[in-house]
Structures are given as structure tokens and as C-alpha cells.
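Journal club prep, notes for RB
We'll compare a predicted complex against what the paper describes. Inputs for the S-adenosylmethionine case:
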Amino acid sequence: MNITNDKVTEYLEALYQPLSKTIELLRADAEEQHIPIILRETEACILNIIRMKKPRRILEIGTAVGYSAICFATASPQTEIISLELSEEMVCIATENVKQHDLSNRIRIMAGDAAESLNELKGSIADVDSEGFDLVFIDAAKGHYREFWDGSIPLCRRDAVIISDNVLIKARTASDEYVTEKRQKTSVRRMREFIEYITKLDYADTAVLSVGDGVAVSVLNIRG
Ligand code: SAM
């Protein structure tokens, strides 16, 4: 289900412009194989945040086939990306896609559970104010967003932006009316708790946008 009405979604999708032919093909391929990648509307929104923010380093949690990382690197030629992915199969496919887009020098994929990779990264950054991330994109297991957020904070520069995708979970986060299966309950409850948490933090300003499947944009002001 779309979180905005179908006519609006259709209209916005028709406005979408892919970054390149090969990126358009990569999207078509992922969609055909039912691999969840960022929605067109979400892509357009995040790419403009990236263009404004001009991040030196982006941390992505959830690589899948590398689609979003490839878009970010293409739209922002000065940016280095570290992307975390649990599935070995996805790591292999994404590595190949990154190579084909000639971006292996700027996109590094770390295999394994993001919680462990975040810990590993923490140990590798000596000075977070100079080597930390300017932008974090959280787009992996929805029930674990709080863990991903908390694990990312020590890696963020003081004015970093954290973008969390799919926070409205097809409108289920907003209303139980849309929670139709028992198995959806835990991730919806956790997502509600996550949103409550990030919107009340005193070191972050968060706007929850009804873009795509719901995007939370948080601007940090930490260690200030
Ligand atoms: N960001 C990608 C894009 O838009 O092209 C899509 C990512 S997809 C929605 C989510 C990915 O997160 C899946 O490939 C899944 O294997 C991965 N994932 C799930 N749990 C994870 C975890 N604990 N650590 C790392 N990756 C995880």
C-alpha cells in the first residue's frame, strides 16, 4: 500500500529522472527480482539532501545490490561510501555492480551483521570530527533501527545527517488499522518506539516525511 494516495504516487513517479541509463537498468533488474531498493521518490529526495550536504563520507546500513550506494556516489563525486550488508549473496552482487559502475575506489562494502561492523568501524576511527561520517543512511532490518542508530552515533561528525528509510512501513506505523498480520506487530511496535526516541532526542532535530514509504531526516548537533 502507498502511504499517499495512488494518483499522487503515480504523478510523482512520472516526474522521476534516473541518474543514468545503467542506473535505470540496475533499478529495473532489482525490481524484477523483487529486491527491495529505495523508491523513486525517496531516491530523488535523498539525492537532493546529498547535493546540499556534500558529504565527504556516507555510511549506509543495508546495501542489497548496491543500488542506493551507486546512486549516492554518482550524484556526489567527492563522496566515499561504506555500506554494510549481512547477506553474502548480496555482497557478491553489489561488489560486481559497483565494479561495473567503476566506483570500487569510492564504495566499500563491509560484509556481516551491521551491529558488528559498526563496532569494528568505531575501533578504526581515531578522530571522529575529522574522519567521521557526514551522512548515515539506515535501510536494513526495520526492527533494529534503534541499534543501528545508537551504533552510528559514535561514528558521526557533530553536524551529521541521519536518514532512516521505510519508517512508516506502508502506513502501519501510523495506525493499527493497517497492521493486518500478527507477524507485523513487533516491527511496527519497534518502529514506533524508534520514532518516539529519535524525535525526542536533545541532540537531533528530526522531520518524519511522508515520502516513499516514510523517511525520517535527522540533523545532529552532538558534542557541541
Ligand atoms: N539500500 C539498498 C538500496 O536502496 O539499494 C536496499 C537495502 S535493502 C532494503 C535491506 C538490506 O539490508 C538487505 O539486503 C538485507 O540483507 C540487509 N540487512 C538486513 N539486516 C541486516 C543487518 N543486521 N546487517 C546488515 N545488513 C542487513
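Talking point for the session: The domain at 6-220 is CATH 3.40.50.150 (Rossmann fold).
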